[in-house]
Amino acid sequence: MNVTNNYKIIHFLMTIRNVSKIQIKSCIDINRKYKRININQSFYGNFLMLNKEILFLYGEVNDTIADTIIKNIIYLNNTTTTKNLTLMINSPGGSVTSGLAMYDSFNLVDMHIGTTCIALAASMGAFLLGSGYKGKRNGFNHCRIMIHQPLGGIVGSFNQIESQANELLYYKLVLNSYISNFSSQAPVKVMRDCDRDYFMSSREAAKYGIIDNVLK
Q1: Neighbouring residues of 210: CB distance < 8 A, sequence distance ≥ 6
Q2: From the CB of residue 110, how many other CB atoms can be counted at a distance below 10 Å?
Q3: 148 is catalytic
Q4: What pTM does this model have?
């Protein structure tokens, strides 16, 4: 580590005790003026949630959030003795490939990954909600769940359009097949329901089979 006269690390100590107590002593000499490093409150909150084996999918499903969740799932699976994890979901959906990557990580680990819808689980968010460990898929009392077929724009030459259309059809069949398996609904019914935006309350989603419990 290179240390200059202008930027010299004087002391850095971080001690974690019991999850609830963090003691941080840190100061850096910058041009001989000492400044204390403030730990971002959101970092502290995220650490506590991670330690309690709770992860959040909040917002759009994309490569960035998928990367974070997958890494945390694998980390917790390899470092904790408790084999239960909860994924809190409030998402309008997003990338199909990112969502399927998270789904594959659910099946990769030994942990039982439960899911809970906080406010909205739509599209790929609903898919991930339903893919949780059966018996541990929950929805808050006033949450909304929506399933539909995958969306995508198609541009290009005739051959390119044909190829992209086939890819959309492939994902439509794959997702509908999984939803049918999650919910125990007939594939034909799922296919018909997903032809449009199919909204459900938490109670309706429990009856449909996407979740198991309604949290009041």
Answers
A1: 126, 129, 130, 137, 145, 147, 179, 182, 183, 200
A2: 7
A3: yes
A4: 0.76
Q: Tokens standing for 93?
A: 């959906």
Task: Assess contact for 20 and 44: CB atoms under 8 A.
Answer: no
Look up residue 102 and give its DSSP letter. H
Is 11 an active-site residue?
Answer: no
User: How far is residue 119's CA from residue 126's CA, in Å, rounded to a whole number?
Assistant: 11
Residues 43-72 have pLDDT tens digits of 434 444 555 688 999 999 999 999 999 999
Q: Does domain 41-215 have CATH number 3.90.226.10?
A: yes
Q: Which one is catalytic: 131, 148, 183, 202?
A: 148
Report residue 103 as tokens: 């789904």
- The residue annotated as part of the active site, out of 123, 131, 183, 202, is 123
Q: Tens digits of per-residue pLDDT, 10-22?
A: 333 333 333 333 3
Provide the β-strand partners of residue 7.
30
**Where in the chain are the domains?**
1-39, 41-215
Nearest Cα residue to 178 out of 204, 147, 201: 147
Angstrom distance (rounded) from CA 41 to CA 183:
39
Which residues is 35 bridged to in the sheet? 28
